[in-house]
Design brief:
The complex is a heterodimer. By secondary structure, chain A is mostly helical. In chain A, 75% of the residues lie in helices and 0% in strands. Chain A folds into 2 domains: 1-35; 77-287, MetI-like fold (Orthogonal Bundle), CATH 1.10.3720.10. Chain B has a two-stranded antiparallel sheet with strand order 1-2. In chain B, strand 1 and strand 2 form a beta hairpin. The chains are: A mainly alpha, B mainly alpha. Chain B: Keywords: Cell membrane, Membrane, Transmembrane, Transmembrane helix, Transport.
Chain lengths: 289, 321
């Protein structure tokens, strides 16, 4: 760095050229990656014959027809699917935040009999593929009469079954100074008051990260709704889209793209507003093993 | 004298919590502390027994039975496993498809992720913009909407063929309904979502001390040597982490194959992912016992793979601290 002054002009020129090449490469890759998405959005405003005749990103004639056609394209309207998805996703957020923060608090702050044993088991479930438990879970929910309700999708979230979030919160809680708990204990606070008055208020960043991921993953989930929801009135947006492909897929591409755009939109908005939180969330789980 | 007094005072403060729990009300209070602790863990404990351990044992039992959700499970010993091992061409096909997918998509995805992360880490302006652009596909890629889009891009009259026709005058086939190419469209969809390992690589690159590069360049090491001798070795723990996570994810791939092949795994089973086969056996054909055996075979494969990666890590992952 310091002896760069020996040949300033040559290295300067070379690094300018390299930079230009790098930027050109990055812009090309970005465009290639975004092109399908932009094309999907622009196609949703085009009439069908234009979708098939042009790959342009700007519609010749701007029309919202596809949105109204797609919205009512199935016997049940997409409004219903959006409400179902919203309800399931919001309940999942509440369930995950409540149950996972309780478990993470117990694992990081309380000294109880068998703690290390349960913690190791929790980490084990993190690695275990869900397929081993999928079928008996289905049989269980079927016997409880929960199939075709949202319960099989929501109840597991209230039982902290997304162990990833416990792990995320454990990492964060460990960084909160223990002196705070000890001082509160001396003042006569029990574990519940410490949890509500100290840990939760100091954990807003990790709770927000968990909430957003939880919402997006539930919103995008396809497998669980596919096996548990059979009646069109209880469909989520993902199931609605897939049914739409089946019923009209080859004939109404613009309607399909209009609904696809709407389904992706909430995730995209969350991404725009909470980008930093999401990226930091991913980076921390990757780094702190 | 005074020092001892202070020390006693300090230890009294330090153990105040424990003393409150153990000495004042003796074991009654200790028990209450244990119960309070377990009340925090209660939701997870219920979930663990009712939704994880119980079902895991139950599916192990079901895998030795013939069961269709209606009649009671009928014990057939190792019948299901024997059929998987010797007499199920679709199982072999599903294994072949899944392994091809894992072996192609994971290295490609990680190579892209690493190359872009290293480029972005060169101190370019607009880092946050590019990072956001590259991350977006992996955030929304799981949605059915994207699988639908992929179906249109690679259909016979889809976007790709429109481009090929007008740029090269080449009339492309329907990529998703040609057995030889259908799987590769799904591989491409997976590689397109390289954003989340890229973020983890970027975080890893940040942790490499800058002065190592300065020292190396003073010693005359060029960019390639710096990459091979500094960046790559110090990044191996992150590469390892990403490789394990992405491989487990790839074994579980489902949505894209399901949507692109309309749930069939076609054309002629060329996109019959393992999970898709499992789904068909369990929830379309209601061969619950057989599907349970298939599930356990997958679990064992993933476990073996994970164990092998951790064993191999000893030889190539560089833990310096």
């Amino acid at each position: 760095m310091t002896d760069g002054s020996v040949t300033p002009s040559i290295s300067g020129m070379r690094s300018h050229a390299t930079r230009a090449v790098l930027y050109a490469g990055l812009i090309a890759v970005s465009f290639a990656m975004l092109y399908p998405l932009l094309w999907m959005v622009s196609s949703s405003f085009k009439p069908d014959n234009e979708i098939f005749s042009s790959w342009s990103l700007i519609p010749k004639a701007f029309s919202l027809d596809a949105y109204s056609r797609g919205w009512n394209g199935l016997s049940v309207s997409f409004g219903r699917f959006f409400l179902n998805s919203l309800l399931i996703s919001l309940l999942s957020v509440v369930g995950n935040l409540a149950s996972c923060s309780l478990a993470a608090y117990a694992f990081t702050r309380l000294r109880f009999f068998g703690r290390n044993f349960w913690f190791a088991l929790m980490l084990g479930t993190l690695m275990m593929p869900q397929h081993a438990v999928l079928i008996p879970q289905y049989v269980l929910f079927l016997n409880l009469g929960w199939v075709n309700t949202i319960l099989p999708l929501v109840v597991p979230k209230f039982l902290a079954m997304d162990a990833f979030f416990i792990f995320l919160m454990v990492q964060f809680f460990r960084g909160i100074p223990r002196e705070l708990d000890e001082a509160a204990t001396m003042d006569g606070c029990g574990p519940w008051r410490i949890y509500f008055k100290i840990i939760l208020p100091l954990s807003m960043p990790v709770l927000a990260t968990a909430a957003i991921f939880s919402f997006i993953w539930t919103w995008d989930d396809f497998f669980a709704p596919l096996i548990y929801l059979n009646d069109a009135h209880s469909y989520t947006v993902q199931l609605g889209l897939r049914t739409f492909v089946d019923s009209s897929g080859q004939s109404d591409w613009s309607g399909l793209f209009a609904m696809s755009t709407l389904v992706v939109l909430p995730v995209f908005v969350l991404f725009l507003f909470f980008q930093r939180l999401l990226i930091e969330g991913i980076a921390t789980t990757g780094m702190k093993r | 004298m005074e020092a001892q007094y202070l020390r006693e005072d300090a230890s009294r403060i330090a153990t105040a919590a424990d003393r409150q729990a153990t000495t004042r009300h003796e074991c009654g209070s200790a028990l209450r502390y244990q119960l309070a602790s377990y009340s925090f863990l209660l939701p997870w404990l219920i979930g663990f027994f009712a939704l994880t351990l119980g079902p895991a044992l139950s599916s192990l039992y079901l895998s030795f039975t013939d069961y269709d959700l209606v009649d009671t499970p009928y014990w057939i010993g190792i019948g299901n496993y024997a059929r998987i091992a010797s007499d199920d061409p679709r199982f072999l096909k599903a294994m072949q498809v899944t392994f091809t997918f894992v072996v192609l998509s994971v290295p490609l995805k990680l190579t892209f992720a690493l190359a872009i992360a290293i480029t972005l880490n060169k101190g370019l302006r607009g880092l946050t913009f590019f990072r956001a652009v590259f991350y977006l596909p992996s955030l929304i890629g799981a949605s059915v909407a994207i699988a639908v889009l992929w179906r249109q891009i690679f259909a016979g009259d889809g976007l790709l063929n429109k481009l090929l026709a007008s740029v090269f005058g080449y009339e492309g086939p329907s990529w998703i309904s040609t057995p030889g190419t259908a799987l590769y469209t799904i591989v491409l969809l997976a590689v397109w979502q390289f954003g989340s390992p890229m973020i983890i690589f970027l975080a890893g690159l940040r942790q490499i001390p800058q002065d190592m590069y300065e020292a190396a360049s003073i010693d005359g090491a060029g960019a390639r040597r710096q990459f091979l001798k500094i960046t790559l070795p110090l990044l191996t723990p992150v590469i390892f982490f990403n490789a394990v996570i992405q491989t487990i994810d790839a074994f579980k791939a489902f949505t894209s194959a399901f949507v692109i092949s309309n749930g069939s795994g076609g054309p002629i089973d060329s996109t019959l992912f393992y999970t898709l086969y499992l789904y068909q056996e369990a929830f379309v054909n209601f061969r619950i016992g057989y599907a349970s055996a298939l599930a356990w075979v997958l679990v064992v494969i993933i476990c073996i793979f994970t164990a092998l990666s951790f064993l191999s890590a000893r030889f190539w992952v560089h833990y310096d601290d």
